[in-house]
Each structure stands twice: as structure tokens, then as C-alpha cells.
Amino acid sequence: MSVLNNIIKINKLYSRNSGVLRTYLRYSSSQSEFLRSPFPDLNIPDVNIVDYVMQDFGRWPNKIALECGITGRKYTFDDVRIKSNKFGMALKEILKLKKGDALALVLPNVPEYGLCVFGAMKMGITITTVNPIYTPAEVERQFIDSDTKAVVTLGMFIPLVKAATAKINKNIPIIAIKSDPNEQFPEGTIIFNDLLGANANCKEDPIFGDEIAVIPYSSGTTGLPKGVELTNNNLVANVTQYNYDAEPEREHDILPSVLPMFHIYGFTNQILGSLQKGIKLVTLPKFTPELYLSTIVKQKVTALMLVPPIVLFLNSHPAVKREHLQHLRCIVCGGAPLSANDEAKFKEKVGKNIPILQGYGLTETSPLVLTVPEGKEKDGGMGYVVNNTIVKVVSIDDPDCKHLSPNNVGELLVKGPQVMKGYHNKPKETEEAFWNGFLRTGDLVRYDEDGMFYICDRIKELIKVKGFQVPPAELEEVIRRYPGVGEAAVIGVPHERYGEAPKAYIVQKQGSKIDVDKLVEFVNANVAPYKQLSGGVSIVDNIPKNPSGKILRRQLKILYEK
């Protein structure tokens, strides 16, 4: 038998439990080659996601689970269990919602978010999460696509919800959460607390198996947002993967919840994964430097769940002092790659070698695909393949999707129990998203001999210069090294000789004034000729990003065209 028909196993040793991390790199001449998770397969329980998250709530009945970082209103773990159950029963008995109906949450991060999620799912009601800063047209589109039957929101967003439902030919009940006991709502609004106090008592009918639990909408960076059907099993699997080998001390962690809960990163990792482990969430409805820093100091925060822009803020903002971060035990960063340079700056700011645990995922995978266990960090590494998951790295022009060997850049394909059921009401897009059961992520990656992955860029964001492919993220990291640069984004713009040329948009640090010519000289000295900033540089006030921190290059292209 030839070597090509043999499976070669390369074993690397490491693990916090056994001292062994087995990375299986499988090669063969067939199309079945792939990379397996280095972590053992886990038993994914056949259970309702709410019961799974709440399985240990009885250990901390009087401990605060959710607290508003502004008003101070709070709920214990026992409150979460009891009040979410009452809310779910009211949805079913009073509002007459049925199993499979969609409840839209048009909410920023508030402590009641968790009550709404758990209450609905315990009654088999599907959640669809809505960004409250959407326009009425964007909200209307999501309501129609998800067939929303009721909405939970805050008083300030009632006009938005009413504008979004004005053209929909059906009555959609609006449930409003009071952030102030004296707050007044328009006539016909259902008060959230009234539902908690209602005399509703009906049989639970929780979601199970492949029933749809939540329909978040993808970022739309490659088109209009699509509803992502995540099942009960998807969420149970991803929480299991997220909390694999979790440290016992996590139940003492205090986490400022600033990542939007309407985004899958904040939804799964905060509401589900963090609460399952007894972590206290201090909800922040939006990010402001003053609120974020005061919360860190007041709450003696021990853990941070971040996206790269917040890390850059902590690294560079003059108001952030080392003593503010003295209680930190670790940070988790996802949503977009964090460079090795930015990791080093954060550790210098904190004043100790704090674990920076990067991870990678996407809405379609609930979201976690790659993770870094504590003690196995590598500079700039996004993680190893999570349990029960296999991946392929394939050339973007290979129709056979042959798996590439280490240190080759290709598109990441994923197969695992956390991968979505499909796109809601979009069978064609669902079919196009998969190859032989593997989800095509649209992200370019490479992995090293140990199985650590590094994100290179998105396929559709590559700049083609004289036939060469230029990843914007590579240029952005170089630009951020230049003194005075706070943030950077690079897009491809038309060029009469090159086809496309890289153009940079720069946000200056407070008090800095960048000499653009010298910046260009610095970049050009650090990259190959075809990667140079021949499209120019523009100084801007901000870089448009989605809630997970990814740069919205499409908006920058629109700005350029104007």
C-alpha cells in the first residue's frame, strides 16, 4: 500500500488534564482528509438547553447572576430560574404563543435578556435577536422573515418597533421592560413585570433535538442579513464545547457584559455558557469609556470577554490605569483576530502575564469553532479545533476541496454538532453554504504543526493587485504599529494599472497628528511592493464595524465611491 493511501498521525503532547494534547493531522489521496480536534469527543447530553444551563443553579440560589451596570437592578440565580419560568408561562397562556412561534428581542444588554431567553425556550418558543440600532426598515425585514409573533423591548425603542410593524398586516404585541419604576409607556403596551406577576400556570413544552431555538441574523457583510437557524442541539453542543475543562474558580468570576447579547458571541458565551458556570454578568447596554471603566473598578472585575477594538481601547486610552485591571484573572477575545503585538501591549498594560484566550467562530456555528485552553496560548493564535469537530483547510480554487498541509493558507470548512441547520427561508443559500456536509466559512486560515490556527482574512475581502492577493488584515497590523495610529482599515479601490490598489483609512489616537507621507513610507518599507498603499490614505473619525468588531469594508467602499 502506498504512502498516499496511509493515514499519517502526528502526535503533539500537551493538555492541562493529562499532559497530552494529541493533534491528528490526517492526509490521504482521497477527498476525506481533514483535521480532527485535539481534544477528546464529549458526550453531548440530549437535554433542553435551559435545563442544561440551569443544572447547577441550585448551588448558588442567592448569588447575583445578572445585574444592570447602570440602574443596579439585579436577579439572583434563583430569581432567574423562577421568573423566567413565569415569563414563559405568560407567553403561552396569556399571549397565546405556541411552540415554534418567534419572539423578537429588540434589546440592548439588560439583565432581563436572560429571563426572556430562558422563559421562551422552556415553552418551545423560538428567539430571534434584533439589533436595537437597526433602522425601521431593517427591523421590519427581520420581523417578516422570522414571522415574529411578539416583541420584547425597552421604552426608548417602542417608536422603532411601532415604525417597523406599521406596514405588517397583523397585530404584534409589544412587551416593554421598565428600566425605571415610574416609566410610562404608550397605551396597549404590555408591561414585562405584569407578565411575571400574572397567574399563568401551564405545562412546559421545551425545545428539544433539532427544533429551532434561536434565529440570529448574520452580519450581512456579503449581502442582506440571513436568518441562521440554530437548534437546541447546536446550543447544547456549543455550551459543552465552550465549558470543556472549565476551571472551578470560574464560578467566582465577575464579567462586565458589554458584548451585544443580540450577537451570537454575546448570546452563547455570556447568557448560556457563563451563567451555566455561575459567573456574575454585569450588563452594560452600550460601550462608553466612563461606564466600562467604572464598572471594572466598582465590581472588581476578574474576567473580560472582548473584541479587538476594546482591547485596543484598554491598551491606548490614557484613562485606563494598571490599578483598574488588578483583579483580572484572564480575558477572552473573539469576533476578529487580535495581533501578537496587541496581545503584548495588553499584558504590559496589566503588568502581568495574564492569559489572553482567543477564539474563533461565526453565527452559523453557534459560534465556537476554535479555542485556546489556558496555558497553551501562542502569540496571535486563534485556537485549536474544539471537541467533536473536524475541519478542512482548502484552496479557494480547488473544486475537490483537498485538505492542505500545515502553514498553507486556505478556506476553513467545518463539520460538527454546533453547525447550523440552515438559513431561514433560504434553501438555495443553505445549499451553497455547504460542501459534502462541511460548512464553508468564507475565512482564510492557516494552521501550524501543533494544530494552532491563525486567521488570515476573508475571501471576499482579498484585494487583487496585478493578480496578487493582498489580505487587508496583514496591512492593518503593519499600519497599527506606526506611532499615533489608533485604528486602521484597508480596502481595495479601482486602479487603472493594477486592477485594484490598497487604500487605508486611519483613526488617530487622541492628541496625535499623523504625517501621512511618513506613514506611507513606513508601511511601504515593511511590505512587498504589490502590497504598498498605492490607493492612498484617509484620516477618519471612526472605522465602521459590526457588533462583533469586524470591519465593515463594504461601508468604506461606499464612502470611497462618494
Molecular structure report:
It contains 15 helices and 28 strands. By secondary structure, the chain is α/β, with parallel strands linked by helices. Among the domains are: 3-43 and 385-458, Luciferase, domain 3 (Roll), CATH 2.30.38; 72-208, Rossmann fold (3-Layer(aba) Sandwich); 462-561, GMP Synthetase, Chain A, domain 3 (2-Layer Sandwich). The model is unreliable at 1-32 (pLDDT under 50).
Strand content: 15-25%
Radius of gyration: 24 Å
> Can you give the helix content as a percent range?
25-40%
**What is the β-strand count?**
28
Overall average pLDDT: 90
Low-pLDDT runs of 5+ residues are 1-32
**CATH third-tier fold name of the domain at 72-208:** Rossmann fold
Task: Examine the secondary-structure arrangement and name the CATH architecture of the domain at 72-208.
Answer: 3-Layer(aba) Sandwich
Approximate shape: globular
CATH class of the domain at 72-208: Alpha Beta
The helix-and-strand class reads: alpha/beta
Q: What is the terminal-to-terminal distance? A: 62 Å
Number of helices: 15
Largest sheet: 6 strands, antiparallel
In summary, what is this structure?
The chain is an alpha/beta fold and 562 residues long. The protein contains 15 helices and 28 strands. It is 26% helix and 23% strand.
Describe this protein with a few key phrases.
562 residues, alpha/beta, Luciferase, domain 3, Rossmann fold, GMP Synthetase, Chain A, domain 3, 6-stranded antiparallel beta sheet, 5-stranded parallel beta sheet, 15 helices, 28 strands, globular, disordered N terminus
